[in-house]
Task: structure prediction
Amino acid sequence: MAIISKFGEKLKHIGQFDRFAGSYENYKIIQSKVARHLVSNIKKRGESILDLGAGGGEVYKNIDWEIKSYHAVDLSPRMLGFHPDTHKILCDFDSEECWKRLKNLPVDMVVSSSALQWSRDFDRLCKNISSLSENVNLALFTSNTFKTIQRITGVPSPILEKSEILDTVNRYFLINYEIRQYRLFFQNRLDMFRYIKKSGVSHGVKRLGYKETRELIMSYPYNYLEFEVVFLWSKK
Result:
């Protein structure tokens, strides 16, 4: 069985991704930080890379070694439109049809940043990834992202807890991991909630009505938003 060694402590609708794809490019502050940290700590560098949920190419832009091929997978055509000139594959990484297309690719490393937390079946997704490569380097937001908003509204996060992520990955890979918290500060609450809407990391807030959202904006106690990310790097 794969063992995780510690050295640091459901999918959104395609229409939402496409609708805010242009705005996302201007609001991806945290995603950019996450991708940079993920790539900078990769130990076993691949030459033929599969990027799941590639978006506009944040992982690709941080790779500073020579590669032979880069396969960028995303379910949003508009998001892929921002990705640099690589092999772009429009498909849903949760679908078996997508994996039928991916399974024959010559891949020696799988990466993903700020995307897999939206998987509808994370266990099956990890199993599919393991069939391609043991060299995986992943970053996922955890359910502690926007935790104060969850506490105020009573609306739980739709994404996995860090323990669920680690337990699942443990079944398929030999991994080092790190948990990092981020805070993103704003000058006012309106800008803060505008960011939530357009950044690509919103969740339970979209389930609130106008009145509930207004009350949340008025009662939110901080001038920052909270994020938690689990980073996973292959040991082999």
In short: Strands lie at 4-6, 48-52, 69-74, 87-90, 109-113, 136-141, 175-185, 224-234. The chain has one domain: 4-234.
